[in-house]
Write a structure and sequence with these properties.
By secondary structure, the chain is an all-alpha fold. Helix content is about 70%, strand content about 0%. The model has no long low-confidence stretch (mean pLDDT about 85).
Length: about 130
């Protein structure tokens, strides 16, 4: 796919990949393959000097969705799990290098997903007992 065509639809493509990533967790290879496609898109954007589109996506367009089914997981849970799975696969050395090189993207997605979850579930201000001693 041409990078300029992909950039035009970048938010839609990335959000659909995150939706598939979280809804297909019962399959073993689907989350890993989604993460590999995300990794390919991030590396292509970096090679073309289009990191600003990725940063803009995270800041303005990325909105984590609540799981639609009880089996579905949150984005930060699934993404962290699949990142570990990719790192454990010692056969694909190139993918491991790319994942480590572009880990900033995945960590920012995880952080925003966790923060959004805490805000939406009203868990950001959990009451603490004063007599905790």
């Amino acid at each position: 796919m041409e990078i300029q065509v992909m950039i035009q639809f970048l938010p839609v493509i990335l959000m659909q990949l995150f939706r598939v990533l979280t809804n297909m967790t019962h399959e073993d290879d689907v989350p890993i393959n989604c993460t590999m496609v995300l990794l390919h898109i991030v590396s292509k954007c970096h090679e073309e000097g289009l990191d600003n589109y990725l940063r803009s996506f995270i800041k303005y367009s990325f909105r984590p969705e609540k799981p639609s089914t009880p089996q579905a997981q949150l984005i930060h849970e699934t993404l962290a799990t699949t990142m570990i799975a990719v790192l454990k696969q010692s056969a694909d050395f190139l993918a491991i290098n790319k994942l480590l090189k572009y880990s900033w993207f995945f960590f920012e997605i995880i952080a925003k997903s966790m923060a959004t979850y805490l805000l939406e579930e009203n868990k950001i201000k959990v009451s603490r007992l004063k007599n905790n001693i």
